[in-house]
Amino acid sequence: MPELTIDGRAVQVPDGTNLILAARKLGIDVPHFCYHPGLTVVGSCRMCQVEIEMGGRKRMDLACANQAADGMVVRVNTPETIKARKGVLEFLLMNHPIDCPVCDDAGECKLQDYYMVHGLYQNRLDVPKWHKPKVYSVGPRVILDAERCVLCSRCVRFCDEIWGDRQLGIFGHGSEEVLINYPGKELDNPYSVNVVDLCPVGALLEKKFRFQRRVWYLKSVKSICPRCSRGCNIYLHVDQDHDYKQPGKRVFRVKPRYNPEVNRWWISDRGRNGFDFIDQNRVGVPRIQDEEVTWEEALGRAAELIRAGLKTWGPQGLGVLVAPSASNEDAFVARRLLRDLLKLEHVDFDVPSSDQPQADHLLLTDDPYPNRQGFRDLGFGPGEGGMRTADIVKAAQNGKIKGLIVAGTDLEGVLGDRAAGLAEKLGWLICVSYAGDALWQRAAVGLPMAVYAERPGTFTNFKGKVQKFEQALTPFGASQPQWLIWQRLAQKLGAKWSYEDERAVFKDLSQGKPAYDTLDWFATFGAGPGPYNDNWYMW
Amino acid sequence: MLQFSDATRQQALALIEKYPRKSAAIIPLLHLAQKEFGWISEEAELAVAQLLDVPVVSVREVSGFYFMFHKHPPGRYHLQVCHNISCSLLGAETILDWIREHLGIESGQTTPDGLFSVERMECLACCDRAPAMLINDELHVHLTRDKLAALVEERRRQAPPPEPHPTDNHESMET
Amino acid sequence: MPQISLVSKNFQYPDQVELQAALSRGAWEQWKRVLAEKIPPAAIIEEVKAAKLRGQGGAGFPTGVKWGFVPKDSPKPKYLCVNADEGEPGTFKDRAILENDPHLMLEGVAITCYAVGIHTAFVYMRGEFYQPQRVMEKAIREATEAGLLGKNIQGSGFDLDVIVHMGAGAYICGEETALLNSLEGWKGWPRLKPPFPAVVGAFGCPTVINNVETMAGVPHIMRLGAAEFQKLGTEKDGGTKLFAISGHVAKPGVYEMTMGSSLKELIYDVAGGLPGGRRLKAVIPGGSSAPVLKADEIDVPLEFEAMAAAGTMLGSGAVIVLDETVSIPEVFMVTARFYAHESCGQCTQCREGCTWIYKISKKILAGHGQPSDLDLMLDLADNMNGKTVCPLGAAMALPTIGFLKKFPHEFLALMKS
Ligand SMILES: Cc1cc2nc3c(=O)[nH]c(=O)nc-3n(C[C@H](O)[C@H](O)[C@H](O)COP(=O)(O)O)c2cc1C
Ligand code: SF4
Ligand code: FES
To answer: What is the pTM assigned to this prediction?
Structure first.
């Protein structure tokens, strides 16, 4: 563990730590473009020059390509290093279009940030600039402005080193180089949008986010990606205060959040594109048949139906399907109601999905749900002699199951023909849903549910890691978190217990379970302390 | 897709054998492709990438980086005129002027009959015999306008009748 | 007399490129002796160190010391790369060796490989070297057939393959790590050092990279012995050096000189002075990357340290002579055009800076310059100098500073009109 001094302060870092990371540990930012902790070091942008004193000899050298050594004295800002970086910045801006007002990256751009520190000079360029491709589609999800590109090669290295297929190249020679895809071969890997996060300027931009919002209006909330069982750490970028362009749209983009144990700096394009459901086709008012009612009325009717069902058909006549997109808190309270209180047997979470991810070597798993492992760990599932999903559906079709409760899944959408007429064959259907889907239309009682982004909670990923997501938005309409719906239903059916909030549920469910001990509800999750700032664009 | 002739393919396979890594044969194979097809088209890049099992992006990065690989078909006689210090001290620009005046082409252009193209070159490492130029792979030195006129005239006489587009006729490109 | 014939001794014989003729003049004798006497490899390295042979590719690094950096116990194969990329403007001395005495270089290659324990040597030759390629490939073929290269050479059990690898037109590939990337099949982008090629070089293996002329010196060290060889030069630079002189001289060409002869002698005594009775204006003494010397500054010894003390460099030993008729701003534009064309595009300062300076130089020639452009170019040069991966950035910066500081009036004169 070498100990060195950076800008007059001592710091100890592990062997092999480069000077950018060592400085970061002290909260000192060494300006850089090409360096990224997740990629190989190329040292080509030359922005990170610092003064290094070692054994009495001073030299100016790269912070990215030099490792900390015992007794090293590093000065980030000296008149010489500032001039050197100023020079680099001026060279980069030489051919840059300086079109910040129409650039989506404004506010997250290293050129802008560093200009505030190193620039602010008179423009000395009076020779013509290069022209390169603009508004050019390099792939289905990414758009390129090659004139803004600083040729840092981060995107090239991402495709090459992380995804494993060189889908982008820097073609040409010297100052005529252009970063672009091969003609007819697109940047279409399932992680392609990571190059947008990596791009330190506005050269590569996400099509989905193009001209959607100025980034400074976005609120960034720590969350977990619900699109597969990896549970990649993300930020949800939301804005509820500006109503231009698409009224009602609240979530604008998903950004990766560094977590060394789960997803490092990356997320899949699937995860990044999986937020539309939050603002589409939502239901916000409880219903009895197709009439809008109050929560009290709806819950009262649901409780009545369940009680009557138990009396006439017995527990064998009722079935419950809950999609494991619900949180641990939801699953825990649901289990207390369905299994412990009502003693139902045919309770399952193994519901199919029409949205199957394709597993690969990087992050994606083949499980579309974020919390299947949590459901298992919490003992949610059929009782002895209870049926699994496929059999429950069959039993519902042939009349063995008369009352069905479905939460968080559009069974008809999934089963297609096989689920046809399901609702009609049942005595009743109670539907807990966020979307106005086909089942919702046919439910005897419809209970509108808040989505994960509208309340806090935890998911357990396929490796058993429990991770928290925070509330990014207020629940749509009058919708409520699933656990609260189960709790209120339980109270109507005679339960004496009650939790104040998600945190109270979590405390109870993690009682004596080591897997949950690591998680402190109040901590900010992710990397925790260390050299890695978890703010994605700080790299 | 573009196919190498059998002979070239054999040559390519032998070349690959010489190196500890296949990628090392990218430049030699691009040379072979250029010899066979006259220039480096997208199809040629794909063919090289396939033979070597490397990403075509890498092949294009290479073909775009090295100035000797033609991105368009050059003329049958490619005049590569050095315009670096020693040659320009001794008249390289007058040589380029002659070409502009008599052939009507500037660096990067080809005569309409496809016979001649011209390219400005950096130092050819024969400054002692300046001004110098290459016509295809032959070095010509101590150039004067008269000497150049004679060289061009000679090639005009030697040239076979115009042929179809070089990519259409592989056989006749082989030398 | 400073002129001498060692490396260039047999350039005069057209048949020296044929193996039989070369053998008759003593080619390959040292190689056969090394094998016959089983001279220990370490002893050869010591001999080359003691001979004070320095790299002739421009940087002048002591050759034996460089060989000594190669790890002895590495389980990986080792490689030799002969740098035959000769692209520095004004330089044509390697071409002279390659075209006139290929067996001399090959013999040096063989001895070097034996000394360092190498069994594959690549001769990385610039793509435009069609004639040198033909000559070298034939020489390798003949030497292999004669059992001087190839498998189990002269029954010694030592194997050596020599492979000519042609570049494809990119000056930067003369830089040793760019050469390695190019050899591996990629763009010629120089690598960050460390690791140095002696440890991690071609294909990730320990690699020695030496200039053609450096290789050609090795057989002479073996023949003369370290002491004799060293004495031909100075205390720190042993042996001789080929100088390539061109531009406005009566007898341009390649001349071999003892280390430490003077630049003035080279121009006037050896190359016959300036033709047509014209007066000298300036000399670019070490390839286009070397800062220019004014007419009254040329009385300097041709030797690494002395040239550095004179504010320029020996570089590749390429001397370009400029007479009084030359326009310095024009020569400067041609120089800037070259670096702008050849910058590999990796480092920000070099990629953008070379082009920027070139554009300004054109603007000045077109009569649109302002006096402030000179300060701007000097500042750009300062922002490039020594701040890039490889020295090409500096190779633009240093001549810029040289031309602008020594001949400012010529630039200013273009602005008044
Ligand atoms: C831009 C640049 C171009 C170079 N070109 C050549 C070259 O053409 N030939 C050469 O031998 N060395 C060239 N060098 C020097 C090599 O990097 C290296 O120092 C040399 O090949 C080592 O061999 P030596 O020690 O025998 O001189 C060049 C260096 C730079 C920075
Ligand atoms: S200094 Fe210039 S030529 Fe050298 S690596 Fe950097 S950009 Fe390439
Ligand atoms: S050179 Fe160090 S970050 Fe780019």
So the answer is: 0.94
